[in-house]
Each structure stands twice: as C-alpha cells, then as structure tokens.
Design a protein that fits this description.
One of its GO terms (molecular function) is serine-type endopeptidase activity. Keywords: Glycoprotein, Hydrolase, Protease, Serine protease, Signal. Belongs to the peptidase S8 family. It is a single chain. This protein has 20 helices and 34 strands. The protein is of the alpha/beta class. Strand 10 and strand 11 form a beta hairpin.
Length: about 775
C-alpha cells in the first residue's frame, strides 16, 4: 500500500468518512507489555511482528496484515490499529489473547459544532442513532446551491473517497475563471444576463465565471454538503473538523448573484434561469439563501421556480430573511418551500471586556487580542468626535467622525447600527485606536456576533453596554480596560434562542400558512470561504482565510438543506412535502434548559419566530407519520386563493386539472395549522400518511388561549406502511383575544411524536 493511500485510509477512518463502506479503522487492545525499564529495538520489532502474525492469521497473510496495520503500540500499551472489515474485527475480538476490539473514534475540536448541537455526533463519535449513520452521510444525493458561486479549491469540495458521479446527473462544469469540478463538486453554472441588464453593465470576464468572489455561496454550499475537513478554523479559533449536513452528497453551484446594485445582488431573470437549469441537471435538493419582500406567488421568481422544482421532486429550502425582529417580515412564504429561521447554538467565541474597577463583560469576536496585562484608556465615539461631527454619528463610529488626537492609543466604544460592524472597527483603527468595543442598542438586545475585526475588538449585549457606558461616562478617574483573546466556549445556556435578525411571521401573502417553518443554527457558523474576499469584506483588509464565521438565515437554510439531503438518501421515494413534514413535525420548541425557547430579548418565543421549532435531524429520519402533498394539492390551494383558472392551468401544465368546486386554504395538508380571523366555529381537515411501523396514534392537544379545540377521530390506527388516515379539527373562540394565540397538536404511538403548531387569531 502506498503512503498516499495509507494516509487516505487513516484520514477517512479518523473522521468517520465511510468511503469504503465495509472497511474502517479499529483498535485491537491486547493489554500491556513487560519489557522492563529498558527495551531494545529488536524487542520492539518482535512486538510488531507478533501483531502482524496475529492479524495475519485472520486476514490470510503477513503481507495483508502489514498493509492493514498503521499503528503498533509496542512500548507500554499492547495492541494495534488497523483498517478492517466489520466481520474481521468481530472474529478477532473472539481470540483468547484479545481484550477488546472497537472502532477507532475521531476526536474533533469543535468547528461545525452545529451538528453536534443537533445531536448528530458527540465528541467526534457518530452514534448508530444519528441520521448521518442511517442516511449514509447523504451518499450520492445531489444538492444544488443558488448563490454567489463557489471557491472550487476549498477542501470542503474534495472528492476523496467518492465514487463515480451518479449516472443520472445531466449537469456540466463551466470552467471559466479556473473553476474546477470533480466527483464532489459535479457542476457549476453562472447566470448574469438579468443582473447586467438591470445594472446597465457590459459583460466581462469577472461576470463570466461561477467563481465565488464574495464568499457567501461557498459558505452556504459547504454548510449543506461540504466534505469532512480536519483542522479547520478561523485563525486558530474554533479549531476542529468542518463538515456539511450531507458530507458525502454531490454538490453543484448555480451562480445567480453578483456585486450589489441598488441594494440587490440577485435578479429574477437570473434566478429563474438558474432554477430551470438545476431542474434539468437533476439536483435532488436546492438550497437558496436569498429573498426579497414577499410578493404574489405568480410575481415571485423564487415561488415560481421552486414550484417547478417541487413538481420534479426537488426539495427547495429557502432562508426566511434577516429583517427581524419586526413582525410580518418573513419572505419565501410559498407553501411548497421549506422556509428557515435562524437561532443560536451553545457555542460562543468569547472575548471579555475587563475594566479597571473589576467589572467584566462577556463579548464575542474573531479578532486578535490586546497585549496581556496592560490596561488602555476607554472613550466613546461621541467623546472622540471631531469638532464638526454630530455626537450621534460619532457614537456610531461613522467614517470621518473620529478625531485621531482623541482616539489614539485608546479603546473606542462604538454603538451598533447604521454602518457595518466591521467598518466601525476600521474607522476606529484609522483614527489610531488600539481596540473597539461594539455595543448593542435596545433593538439588537442579546444578538451579538463574532466578527473578524481589523483590530482587537469585542461585541457585547445591550444590558452590558448600558453598564459600560455608565462606567466610561461617569467615573471620576480615567476609565481603563482591556480585551481578552477570543476562546471557543461550549455548553452555553440558554440555547438555542432566536436570533434577533431572523425574520418573523405572520405570513403577509397567505395568513393561513404559517411561516417560517422551522429554525436552525444561523449564528457564528464556521464554513468554507473564498480566498478572493477579505475577512471583513473591506478593501483595505488583506486578510483571507479558508474558513470563516457568518451569521444569518443564509446560514440556517443550508443546515436544513443538508438534512433534506440525508432524508433523500435514506428515503428516496419520499416527496418534498414528506421530507418537509418529517423535519417540521419532529422539531423541538424547548432549549437546553428544557424551558420554552426565547427570542433575542430573552422573552418567550412563539411559532411566528420559529415555526414548528428547532430541527432535530436524527428524529426526522423516523417521523412515524407525515403530512404529504401532491402538485394537485398545491393547485387546489391556489384555486382557494381565487387565482384565475386559466392561469392555474398554464401553471400546472396539466390539461386534465380542474379547480375543485370547494377549496379552502386552511385545508391544505400542511404540517402546521393556522386559522386567522376566527370568528365562529371552523373545521380543518388533515391527512396523515404512515411511513413508520404499524401502530395506533392518539391525539393530544394544547389549546391556544381563548380557543377550544376538538379532534375527530382522536385515535388513528395504521395497519400498514403507506396507509393514509384523515382527521378533522374544530376550533371555536371562547372569547376574543387581542393578538394571535398559540397551541399545538401531537399524534403519538408512544414512540413517535408528530407535532404541529396551532396558530389562531380571534381578532
């Protein structure tokens, strides 16, 4: 065996990549040695030979044993590590000289910690109950990403251990701009005509490549389907093994987003062209981390494109938007889309503000640290302003507002808002400051982000910001302090809680459909990045990195797309609606304290924040029952909304389809139940399909405040897989409430818990 191949075997076994499904590394433990205080090289050689002899007796030859063993423990521990088939390991374990045989477990240093937070692994070990194990890491599912392109050189798109490209793939690789495809990154395309026309630009080489100059597309694609990459970090912080949701999936990049023009990067013509080609190429899942203001379904390129994709069996996952915490801001609200909000996880990149008076405030950052053991003067942006600048602008550390004579050598305290977080640090640096403390306003509250600032900096929450401002503004001595180096901290509570920026319901297009559908990790996510964009995104910043932290529903969306890829591998016959239902009905609404999830202000969140809840991937693999939908069900929904029959016929491309005489929005077989404007008794109908074992399910209801709920029948018995049963839910107002009320329905057979949120307005 060559050194290269041996190294590949070691890497694959260490990080649990089942490239060779029947072979992985095992530890064969034989006890201890009795060499004495001194041991000769010949004695060590004899130990190795004994290991070869033992293993060779099972493999058939010494040569095979030599090739299989990559460690002989010959000093104090007696044993060896070898690449074996499961049957071989089982046979060796029965040998009288063997104490134990166990699979070699890779210990990770916590990079894409989001997957461990969602219980897909524990301390680098992937349990048999993990959806990764059951779904073969998304093997051969094809995930497409509609975004800013791809940095194809990233290790996240390595093809190591992958077999031939699935024969069903019809896509191609556009190699312009030195983009390269392989058995992992199997397709790249770009779409620029809509952008060029809108921006009034002529095309040139920078617009004629799928290469990612921004970083957003590389980050999202690697989050959904990136390969295992050991040793990933952002300048040593968050060091560990990076991986996407479907690490063995094939991925394809559809570049439809370009440098901003009038505040937009992605234009409808290009989006539709990208959808069209992705459907042609044969993707199984589309991850789309972009959107705009909600619009009529027939006037929304994403709604149209995604409908056609779903018709072809493609699961479409979209971001909910970053316009929170304002209500009614959620985008991508079509019921055939799986819409994802963003929440935190239990990891923080902590950097503390240490004041001279002993106070200490926790912040987050990815920037370098100040010298240890030295305190620096503190000043606010308003105190350091130039004469003709407004105090408000200087407090926000806007360009040209800080006086170098007042800022030099100090730590500047800046208020969040109006300009980018990293640009505030740049302005502080240009003014000669040694550091910056970024303070949240009341609107941002607890929403703090670990940014790679250009100078030592940290970001603190609103409550601590108030205390800091009080110290800086009122102390009778010169205010002094310092910033500590960033350190990854785990087990943070509460987690998850909703990110303040995450867009919220209600749905402004169809109030009878709850959006978002679920939430997933979207804060400080480490994933692959382009080398053509600086860490801070500032032209003056020369720093680049292979991995980078980003936050947004753009980051939570590909987490769910990766899970959808796993479900597609595990259940290839499931429809996109079944996949969505499995993810939604197995979600949770409690945090790691077993308390109700909170929003960014630490107030109890609700279904307008998180939809059905935070995803639990391993539960989604076996949901028990699903709320399934066909294309005709979506057409019935459009009929119920009053769309023109001719339009619907053209939309459906089905000459036989006719709108039903009676159709109701609330009867769409959606996994959530929303009834707006409840003024009298309303009955909704749902159908459940058995995708698990035979069983009897009983309904449990948590009534929304001021609403009575009755379910008939309250017990459903399923005799076979694929069987469909219907039930009706009748809702009646007890009194008129001032706002929406939230409840829930759970069907359970004692093993599965099929949960649906109930949202009602009696106003």
């Amino acid at each position: 065996m060559t050194k290269t191949l041996l190294a590949l075997f070691i890497i694959l076994s260490l990080f649990h990549v089942p490239a060779f499904a029947a072979r992985k590394s095992y530890i064969v433990y034989l006890g201890s040695h009795s060499h004495g205080p001194e041991v000769s090289s010949s004695a060590l050689k004899l130990v190795s030979e004994s290991h070869h002899e033992l293993l060779g007796s099972f493999l058939g030859s010494h040569e095979k044993a030599r090739n299989a063993i990559f460690y002989s423990y010959d000093r104090h521990i007696n044993g060896f590590a070898a690449v074996l088939e499961e049957e071989e390991a089982a046979a060796i374990s029965k040998h009288p000289s063997v104490i134990s045989v166990f699979p070699e477990k890779g210990k990770k240093l916590h990079t894409t910690h989001s997957w461990e937070f969602m219980q897909m692994e524990k301390d680098g070990v992937i349990p048999s109950s993990s959806l990764w194990s059951k779904a073969r890491f998304g093997e051969d599912t094809i995930i497409g990403n509609l975004d800013t392109g791809v940095w194809s050189e990233s290790q996240s798109f390595s093809s190591d251990g992958l077999g031939p490209v699935p024969s069903r793939w019809k896509g191609s690789c556009n190699t312009a701009g030195d983009v390269r495809c392989n058995r992992k990154l199997i397709g790249t395309r770009y779409f620029n005509k809509g952008y060029l026309v809108s921006a009034g630009l002529k095309s040139n080489s920078s617009f004629e490549s799928a290469r990612d100059h921004d970083g957003h597309g590389t980050h999202t694609l690697s989050t959904a389907g990136g390969h295992f990459v050991p040793g990933a970090s952002v300048f040593g912080v968050g060091n560990g093994t990076a991986k996407g949701g479907s690490p063995l999936a094939r991925v394809a990049s559809y570049k439809a987003c370009w440098p901003p023009f009038n505040g937009s990067e992605c234009f409808d013509a290009d989006i539709l062209a990208a959808f069209d080609m992705a459907i042609h190429d044969g993707v199984d899942v589309l991850s789309i981390s972009l959107g705009g203001d909600p619009a009529d379904y027939f006037n929304d390129a994403i709604a149209i494109g995604s409908f056609h994709a779903v018709k072809h069996g493609i699961t479409v996952v979209c971001s909910a938007g970053n316009s929170g915490p304002d209500p009614a801001t959620v985008s991508n609200v079509a019921p055939w889309i799986l819409t994802v909000a963003a929440s935190t996880m239990d990891r923080e990149f902590q950097s503390f503000v240490q004041l001279a008076n002993g106070e200490r405030f926790k912040g987050e950052t990815m920037s370098k640290a100040l010298p240890v053991g030295k305190l620096f003067s503190l000043t606010t942006g308003a105190q350091a302003k130039i004469a003709n600048a407004s105090a408000i602008d200087a407090m926000l550390c806007k360009e040209g507002t800080l006086d170098p004579h007042k800022a030099y050598g100090k730590i500047i305290v800046c208020l969040r808002g109006n300009t980018s977080r990293v640009d505030k640090g740049r302005q502080a640096s240009l003014a000669g400051a040694v550091g910056m403390i970024l303070c949240n306003d009341k609107g941002s509250w607890n929403d703090i982000i670990a940014d790679p600032h250009v100078l030592p900096a940290t970001h603190i929450n609103f409550f601590d910001s108030q205390a800091l401002f009080s110290y800086v503004n009122s102390t009778y001595l010169e205010p002094m302090g310092t910033l500590t180096a960033p350190v990854a901290a785990f087990g943070i509570k509460p987690a998850p809680y909703m990110a303040n920026f995450s867009s919220q319901g209600p749905n402004t297009i169809t109030s009878g459909i709850l959006k978002p559908d679920v939430t997933a990790p979207g804060v400080d996510i480490i994933a692959a990045y382009t080398r053509e964009q600086s860490l801070s995104g500032l032209e003056s910043d020369p720093r680049t990195t292979a991995f980078y932290t980003e936050s947004g529903t753009s980051m939570s969306c590909p987490h769910v797309a990766g899970v959808a890829g796993l479900l597609r591998t595990m259940h290839p016959s499931w429809s996109p609606a079944a996949i969505r239902s499995a993810i939604m009905t197995t979600a949770r609404t409690r945090d790691n304290r077993f308390s109700p999830m909170l929003n960014g202000s630490y107030v109890k969140a609700n279904s307008f924040n998180y939809g059905s809840g935070h995803i639990r991937p391993s539960r989604a693999g076996d949901p028990g029952l699903v709320y399934d939908l066909t294309v005709n069900d979506y057409l019935d929904f459009l009929c119920a909304l009053g769309y023109n029959k001719t339009m619907i016929k053209l939309f459906s491309e089905s000459p036989s389809y006719k709108c039903p005489k009676e159709a109701s929005v609330v009867d769409l077989n959606y996994p959530s139940i929303t009834v707006p404007n409840l003024t009298g008794s309303v009955t909704v109908t749902r159908k459940l399909k058995n995708v698990g074992s035979v069983g009897t399910y009983a309904a449990g209801v948590r009534e929304p405040y001021g609403v009575s709920v009755n379910v008939e029948p309250s017990v459903l018995k399923f005799d076979r897989v694929g069987q469909v049963k219907s039930f009706k839910m009748t809702l009646k107002p007890i009194w008129v409430a001032k706002d929406y009320a939230f409840g829930g329905l759970t069907w359970s057979d004692g093993k599965h818990y099929v949960r649906s949120p109930i949202v009602v307005s009696t106003v």
